[in-house]
UniProtKB/TrEMBL annotation:
GO molecular function terms listed in the Swiss-Prot or TrEMBL record: 1,4-alpha-glucan branching enzyme activity; cation binding; hydrolase activity, hydrolyzing O-glycosyl compounds
Gene that this sequence comes from: glgB
Record's subunit section: Monomer.
Function: Catalyzes the formation of the alpha-1,6-glucosidic linkages in glycogen by scission of a 1,4-alpha-linked oligosaccharide from growing alpha-1,4-glucan chains and the subsequent attachment of the oligosaccharide to the alpha-1,6 position.
NCBIfam families for this protein: branching_enzym (TIGR01515), PRK05402.1 (NF003811), PRK12313.1 (NF008967)
Protein name per its UniProtKB record: 1,4-alpha-glucan branching enzyme GlgB
Domain (Glycosyl hydrolase family 13 catalytic): residue spans on this chain: 247-596
Keywords, in A-Z order: Carbohydrate metabolism, Glycogen biosynthesis, Glycogen metabolism, Glycosyltransferase, Transferase
Enzyme Commission code(s) on record: 2.4.1.18
Organism: Pantoea sp. BJ2
GO cellular component: cytosol
Active-site residues (renumbered): D405 (nucleophile), E458 (proton donor)
Length: 728
């Protein structure tokens, strides 16, 4: 039996320091009968109304002028559903009492959350509209095990932390409350009295929608319905399919010309998606769209992991953008950042007064490079929060894959740290075993719960087995960015052609390790910022040579084994570095036909041709799919190789990286017969010199390069050719 609370408890309640509000508020059985207690600041009188009959049962007495009411309902022993008729400033309101509802978390959810193995923690934690006993409202739940008190505050209670203190589920460290009348579209936060008594106002880590910066509140909104991954989307992610990725920063792909404002998700669906389709890309990769406070982080310092940024529209408008991409036959990848998070007060940092999501030791929990905090992957609730987030984007938005940012910073404890600035693992090594376990687990979860989706690792070291199954000791990613290939080939291309003969190996070295991982060849945003110059501007020579070098390089890239990725602007040879605050330089394609138009058409044709011919993509990760024909012609800076499909069909790729045309250049081939150009980066359409091999070129019974038959071709200056064998 519960008796009338003492003055100390009431004072603690008003001070916001009472950790167990359900023991004090709501309906209680006492010796005198059922007693109802309510905290209603500024109310003048309060009546208890029986829900079933609408009858007034009792008037509550104001025991404290600050708004604490209590009253006994005589001759009633069994609890019943009730409402409160409250008079505020002369106006009567009929409200449901949040403290008449029992515990909310289901037993199985509680068990899985406690274990840190909940496949979909976002279905339980956060804010969820629901109906309990016929009452509509929102159930809130937040993990804050070391807090003294947590209240949900929002537009539904005047942001007053005294009105809705939450129930503490001590066995889980989770606080929960059902708030009647809280509805979709209303803003909220959690008011936390932390372990040291300090007040913290925090956004919901599981918020499905949030305000745009500089505001930071979370928004009540329902979970979006699940989206089934269609067979054609699964097929488009397969290892043997053509994958050409267009990496986009939504805030600067294109802007309104009159006010330099962003395009909305709706406008991007109408403009970006048809453009990507026309250009022949198979996938769009979006730089992080999770809600983030600082534009200049490009999304790489996210705090709203479950909320698409409001910069471009609502959560549902983003879902429609993804659906529009799928309707156009384009898969969508998200750049995902589980490696670190910013220290903004409203976010995850010291969430309950302790280092809850991060490590307490800055040698483990602070990223010196980015001034951000590092997740404590060894804490099961934290890894569950993140792995659940990965599945959330797949299931609820129809995302087809995640590109995982900065994997090397996660898996190495000494990443970018000097001796003495890092803590070894339990075996004395430099590997972050907890992060490795988290990545393996997340990849397994996606493989089982979202079959057909993929993950792509940005991993900048030679960590073994990034794209190998976790059961074989790998990390379990589907693909890995080949940053070694990118650095080597760009280092080669920036050289004056006269010096390239001395650095021939930069273009061939990639094949030494090509089959150790499933590689994507990236020319990403990282390569066109921070003084690195644009890809075009790295090319040597005058304007003609710069563009010719770039076209030859693109022809080489699309012919080389590995999936492709181009950052926006690269496809039309933007001359300046990328600036996230302005639109791409689309004016370069306006006016009379020019070199930029030529590169633009080339990338479009490379994509469509690459997709059409199976030898160019079917065996990217199989040694049978590639063979050098000419690998050692240092003097002429010429490379020739074959791409092959499962049926033995071949495409010849030949590159001449000097400004001198090579006439009658002979090399041995595997297959006799006629060969025809299907791509020539020097042709007139691309603003080249139009040095061509017209018609069909036939092999000669003349030994060359260890083969009994050979071809004699003209290799255009600074150009790449693709040739296909004509049917007999």
């Amino acid at each position: 039996m519960s008796e009338l609370p003492d003055r100390q408890a009431i004072n603690a309640l008003f001070a916001g320091n009472y950790a167990d509000p359900f023991s004090l508020l709501g309906m209680h059985q006492t010796a005198a009968g059922l007693e109802v207690r309510a905290l209603l600041p500024d109310a003048s009188d309060v009546w208890v109304i029986e829900t079933n009959t609408g009858r007034k049962c009792a008037q509550l007495t104001c025991l404290d002028s600050r708004g604490f009411f209590s009253g006994v309902i005589p001759r009633r022993k069994n609890r019943f559903g009730y409402q409160l008729a409250v008079n505020w400033h002369g106006q009567q309101n009929l409200i449901d009492d949040a403290y008449r509802f029992g515990p909310l978390l289901e037993e199985m959810d509680a068990w899985l959350l406690g274990e840190g193995t909940h496949l979909r923690p976002y279905e339980t934690l956060g804010a969820h509209g629901t109906t309990i006993d016929g009452v509509h409202g929102t159930r809130f739940a937040v993990w804050a095990p070391n807090a003294r008190r947590v209240s949900v505050v929002g537009e539904f209670n005047f942001w007053d932390g005294r009105r809705h203190p939450m129930r503490f589920r001590r066995e889980l460290g989770v606080w929960e409350l059902f708030v009647p009348g809280a509805v979709n579209g209303q803003l909220y936060k959690f008011e936390i009295v932390d372990n040291s008594g300090q007040m913290r106002i925090k956004a919901d880590p599981f918020a499905f929608e949030a305000q745009m910066r500089p505001q930071t509140a979370s928004m009540i909104c329902g979970l979006p319905p699940k989206t089934e991954m269609q067979p054609q989307r699964k097929a488009a992610n397969a290892f043997d399919q053509p994958i050409s990725i267009y990496e986009v920063h939504l805030g600067s792909w294109r802007r309104h010309t009159d006010n330099n404002f962003w395009l909305s998700y709706k406008e991007l669906a109408e403009q970006l998606i048809p453009y990507v389709k026309e250009m022949g890309f198979t996938h769009i990769e979006l730089m992080p769209i999770n809600e983030h406070p600082f534009d200049g982080s490009w999304g790489y310092q996210p705090l709203g992991m479950y909320a698409p940024t409001r910069r471009f529209g609502t959560r549902d408008e983003f879902r429609h953008f993804v659906a529009a991409a799928h309707d156009a036959g384009i898969n969508v990848l998200l750049d995902w950042v589980p490696g670190h998070f910013p220290s903004d007060d409203f976010g995850l940092a010291k969430f309950d007064g302790t280092e809850l999501y991060e490590h307490s030791d800055p040698r483990e929990g602070f990223h010196q490079d980015w001034n951000t905090l590092i997740y404590n992957f060894g804490r099961r609730e934290v890894s569950n929060y993140l792995s659940g987030n990965a599945l959330y984007w797949m299931e609820r938005f129809g995302i087809d894959g995640l590109r995982v940012d900065a994997v090397a910073s996660m898996i190495y404890r000494d990443y970018s740290r000097a001796e003495g600035e890092w803590v070894p693992n339990q075996f004395g090594g430099r590997e972050n075993l907890e992060a490795i376990s988290f990545l393996r687990h997340t990849n397994r979860v996606l493989g089982r719960a979202a079959p057909g989706s993929v993950t792509v690792a940005e991993e900048s070291t030679d960590y073994p087995g990034v794209t190998r199954p976790s059961e074989d000791g790998g990390l379990g990613f589907w693909f890995k960015w080949n940053l070694g290939w990118m650095h080597d080939t760009l280092d080669y291309m920036k050289l004056d052609p006269v010096h390239r003969r001395y650095h021939h190996q930069l273009m061939t070295f990639g094949m030494i390790y090509n089959y150790t991982e499933n590689f994507v060849l990236p020319l990403s945003h990282d390569e066109v910022v921070h003084g690195k110059r644009s890809i075009l501007d790295r090319m040597p020579g005058d304007a003609w040579q710069k563009f010719a070098n770039l076209r030859a390089y693109y022809g080489w890239m699309w012919g080389f084994p590995g999936k492709k990725l181009q950052f926006m602007g690269n496809e039309f040879a933007q001359g300046r570095e990328w600036n996230h605050d302005t639109s791409l330089d689309w004016h370069l394609l306006e006016g009379e036909d020019n070199w930029h138009n030529g590169v633009h058409r080339l990338v479009r044709d490379l994509n469509h041709t690459y997709r059409h011919y199976a030898p160019l993509h079917q065996l990217d990760f199989d040694g049978q799919g590639f063979e050098w024909l000419v690998v050692d012609d240092y003097e002429n800076s010429v490379f020739v190789f074959v791409r092959r499909d499962r049926d033995g069909n071949e495409i010849i790729v030949a590159s001449n990286f000097t400004p001198v045309a090579r006439h009658n250049y002979r090399f041995g081939v595997n297959q006799r017969g006629g060969w025809r150009e299907i791509m020539n980066t020097d042709q007139h359409d691309y603003h080249g010199s139009d040095t061509r091999n017209h018609g069909v070129v036939h092999t000669d019974e003349m030994e060359s390069h260890g083969r009994p038959q050979s071809l004699s071709l003209t290799l255009p200056p600074l150009a790449t050719l693709w040739l296909v064998r004509e049917s007999d």
